């Protein structure tokens, strides 16, 4: 019997339709032409419905970065050596990584979960040691994870969602760190969406044209080995990574606990795609931060019917693109909560003006 978190098999709660109607009515009554704040209005209404409140907010923000190494790196799919994963975990803890800087700027809590690295990671502040194995297996030749391993990774993500809920989190951002993980993400997306590797494989950490071609061939081998099974758990075990599985568990776990999720780039979007394949109602709980420069991200966003807030050419991962989008959500909530209505301000609206 597999030990799966409850959020894997249970539908997440539905948004509060009454709060959505109330928030929509409030937007119509504020001192502005209806719709003039564009998607900021939509964000506020969506958050009001998800948080079941008249006063939506995204604070406090919680960021959890999941890290794990990938056995497929032995196929030469990355421009960086695998030791970088462990080194970057230390950089997160030391405050030197992009997401560390952004979390501090946002006054957001940041934790890192180490699910398994080939390099040694000492005890570090802000880093949870939840290692499953030094790395996944090489997905080009065998299943990346055993069933027990994928369940452990999903459970780790769900536990992170539980910690976020206990901390009173109102918005969750998941980040990723793992050399080789764009290969895994591309393979997962190809399997779920029935796409060719050529359409979803990109440069990742900076591969040249020959490197991208080699990476595409590796993904093609993995897909031929995997076959046409689209069951999310089977696909994840066959082609996924520890950090991608944990992200899926965290996203589902946050939705189950009533916490909206701001989705980062390619890796996190593929984790969200897996979650939506498993629980279609999860889609209501997802906000999309940015469009990654990684070519496969556009197809994943299309499959999720997602319109990201930003397009800055970013492809770093770590949750960095989502962190950059947080001020937009804060602005949406502030405008919704604090603008005066026509009645409050004594301003004539289009219905009363002569």
Automatic annotation (TrEMBL):
Keywords, sorted A to Z: Cobalamin biosynthesis, Glycosyltransferase, Transferase
MF terms in GO: nicotinate-nucleotide-dimethylbenzimidazole phosphoribosyltransferase activity
An individual GO BP term: cobalamin biosynthetic process
Gene3D superfamilies: 1.10.1610.10, 3.40.50.10210
EC code: 2.4.2.21
Electron transport is among the record's keywords: no
HAMAP family: CobT
Role according to the record: Catalyzes the synthesis of alpha-ribazole-5'-phosphate from nicotinate mononucleotide (NAMN) and 5,6-dimethylbenzimidazole (DMB).
PANTHER family found in the cross-reference section: NICOTINATE-NUCLEOTIDE--DIMETHYLBENZIMIDAZOLE PHOSPHORIBOSYLTRANSFERASE
Full protein name: Nicotinate-nucleotide--dimethylbenzimidazole phosphoribosyltransferase
Organism this protein belongs to: Marinobacter lipolyticus SM19
């Amino acid at each position: 019997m597999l030990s799966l978190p409850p959020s894997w098999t249970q539908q997440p709660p539905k948004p509060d339709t009454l709060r959505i109607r109330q928030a929509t009515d409030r937007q119509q009554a504020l001192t502005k032409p209806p719709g003039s704040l564009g998607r900021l209005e939509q964000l506020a209404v969506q958050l009001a419905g998800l948080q079941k409140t008249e006063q939506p907010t995204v604070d406090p923000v919680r960021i959890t970065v999941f890290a794990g190494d990938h056995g497929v790196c032995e196929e030469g799919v990355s421009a960086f050596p695998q030791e970088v994963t462990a080194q970057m975990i230390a950089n997160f803890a030391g405050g030197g990584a992009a997401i560390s800087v952004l979390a501090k700027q946002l006054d957001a809590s940041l934790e890192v979960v180490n699910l398994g690295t080939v390099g040694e990671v000492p005890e570090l502040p802000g880093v949870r040691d939840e290692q499953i194995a030094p790395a996944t297996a090489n997905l080009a030749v065998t299943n990346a994870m055993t069933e027990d391993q994928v369940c452990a990774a999903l459970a780790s993500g769900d536990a992170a969602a539980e910690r976020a809920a206990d901390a009173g989190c109102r918005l969750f951002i998941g980040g990723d760190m793992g050399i080789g993980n764009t290969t895994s993400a591309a393979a997962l997306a190809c399997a779920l969406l029935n796409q060719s590797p050529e359409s979803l494989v990109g440069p990742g950490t900076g591969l040249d044209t020959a490197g991208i071609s080699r990476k595409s061939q590796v993904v093609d081998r993995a897909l031929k080995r995997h076959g046409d099974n689209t069951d999310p758990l089977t696909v994840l075990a066959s082609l996924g990574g520890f950090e991608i599985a944990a992200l899926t568990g965290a996203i589902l776990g946050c939705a189950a606990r009533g916490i909206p999720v701001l989705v980062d780039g390619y890796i996190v979007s593929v984790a969200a795609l897996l979650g939506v394949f498993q629980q279609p109602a999860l889609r209501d709980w997802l906000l999309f931060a940015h469009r990654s420069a990684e070519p496969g991200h556009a197809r994943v966003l299309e499959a999720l019917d997602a319109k990201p807030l930003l397009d800055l050419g970013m492809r770093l991962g770590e949750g960095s693109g989502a962190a950059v989008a947080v001020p937009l959500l804060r602005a949406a909530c502030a405008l919704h909560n604090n603008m005066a209505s026509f009645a409050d301000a004594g301003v004539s609206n289009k219905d009363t003006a002569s």
